[in-house]
C-alpha cells in the first residue's frame, strides 16, 4: 500500500514538521459511493462539520473488514471495497499521538440496518448525508476552514486528502493501478 500523505503539525499549525516513531492507533476509512457516484458524508451537527466514514481497527481485524464494519455501523449500508487508495499518517506532536489510516473506496449496496453509533458519535449528532462529488468537496473545504480544534483539524485535513484522491480516481483524472 502506498503512502498518500504524512500529516504533521506543519499542516495544521504552520510549524516545523515533526514525525512520531510509534503508532498509537490504526484506522481504516475512506469514501463510500452509491451507483450514481454520490458520496456518503458523515455530518456532525454539534460541530457543523463533515467527515468520511471510518474508525479504528479492532484487535485481530484486517483493515478492509474494519472499513466495511465502520461503514455498516455509521451508515447502515453493506458495501464492497472497489479500490485501495493507500495510507495516511497523522503525526500529532502536541498530543504525542500518531494514527496510521488505511484508506479505500467502497461501493454501497442496499441499506441493511440502522446505524450503530458510539456514544461519542451520538453526542456529536452524527448522521449520514449523501451528496454529489462536488458538494462533498465543498463541505470538506468548509469543514477545513471552520474547524478550530487541534485534533479535529487533523481528522478533517486527513479526510479532505482522502476525498480529493478518491474523486480523481472516480472521475478518471488519474490512472488506477
Walk me through the structure.
This protein is of the alpha/beta class and about 180 residues long. It has one domain (about 5-170): Nucleoside Triphosphate Pyrophosphohydrolase, CATH 3.90.79.10. The protein has helices at about 10-15, 65-75, 120-125, 135-145, 150-170, and strands at about 5-10, 25-35, 40-45, 50, 55, 75-90, 95-110, 125-130. Strands 1-6-7-2-5 form a five-stranded mixed sheet, sandwiched between helices. It has a three-stranded antiparallel sheet with strand order 4-3-8. The chain is globular, with a radius of gyration of 15 Å.
Summarize the structure.
The chain has helices spanning 9-13, 63-75, 119-123, 133-146, 150-170, and strands at 3-8, 25-33, 39-44, 49-51, 54-56, 77-92, 97-111, 126-131. The protein is α/β, with parallel strands linked by helices and 177 residues long. A hairpin with a 4-residue loop joins strand 3 and strand 4.
